[in-house]
Design a protein that fits this description.
heterodimer, B: 110 residues, 5-stranded mixed beta sheet, globular
């Protein structure tokens, strides 16, 4: 879980949201406000925009995963520790397909972009310092996003 | 959660002015609007994103799909936007090479 190794003065926040895209905009706003951003030290507007975007990508994937199992909630943990920001988004879906992570389309040729999807993970990887995907022991996927200011 | 869609004509171009947030919740409305425009025979389209506050990969995917759809009909779709937070989404995905990205609608139609 995010924040389990955080320093004592780190700010740790958990937000749980219904697994519905109707709450996505609100979740972006609530998570950023709850984490004390953009008023927190060191994170400029551009970096907060990055967080808003990667949050949206991770939550969208989590809501879609939950839709496959009927799970009700998505849990979002945010830890702000000095100049480091860590976000963990956990769903109760069927778990991640490894091929999903390796299939990165060439974004310079639209014929190689299948359908309308496949752009979220490249975006997360481009904007974060580190992105980790893990299948949770009790089912579902946990996405960990790490950003520095 | 809001998505505004207004259509105007500028010469031979149809200008679709989008406002609000484009994500998985609102993108279907944008997709349907573009499909409707193409169905009506509008094949020179400028999507004006100047009033868009937020765009994620789902919205980007809809724009890619729209570009493919318009090109299938030998049409053209251009993007007008100079808002840095939106332009950045195109830049980091490399899609500035795919779309004609213009600072203003006037630039896009000229």
């Amino acid at each position: 879980m995010a924040g389990e190794h955080a320093a004592p003065d780190a700010r740790c926040v958990r937000v749980e949201m219904p697994a519905s895209v109707a709450y996505l905009s609100m979740a972006r706003m609530v998570v950023i406000a709850a984490a004390g951003l953009p008023d927190g030290p060191g994170f400029d507007d551009s970096r907060v925009d990055d967080l808003r975007l990667v949050l949206s990508e991770a939550i969208t994937n989590a809501v879609k995963a939950n839709a496959k199992t009927g799970a009700a909630d998505v849990a979002i943990d945010v830890t702000v520790d000095g100049d480091a920001l860590e976000v963990t988004v956990a769903d109760r879906g069927p778990g991640i397909d490894p091929s999903f992570l390796s299939e990165v389309p060439s974004l310079h040729d639209i014929d190689e972009i299948g359908g309308e999807g496949g752009l979220g993970i490249p975006l997360m990887r481009a904007l974060c310092d580190k992105v980790e995907f893990a299948t949770r022991p009790d089912g579902g996927t946990e996405v960990r996003l790490m950003l520095h200011r | 959660m809001h998505l505004g869609l207004d259509t105007t004509e500028q010469g031979e171009w149809t200008v679709l002015r989008v406002s609000g947030e484009i994500d998985v919740a609102t993108a279907p409305k944008l997709r349907e609007k573009i499909i409707s425009l193409v169905g009506e025979g509008c094949l020179s389209i400028v999507v004006d994103l100047a009033a868009v506050d937020f765009l994620d990969s789902t919205g980007l995917g809809v724009l890619v799909g729209a570009l493919k759809r318009v090109r299938e009909h030998d049409g053209e779709l251009r993007i007008a936007c100079d808002e840095p937070r939106i332009v950045k989404v195109f830049e980091i995905t490399g899609l500035t090479d795919v779309f004609g990205l213009h600072g203003t609608v006037d630039d896009a139609v000229s």
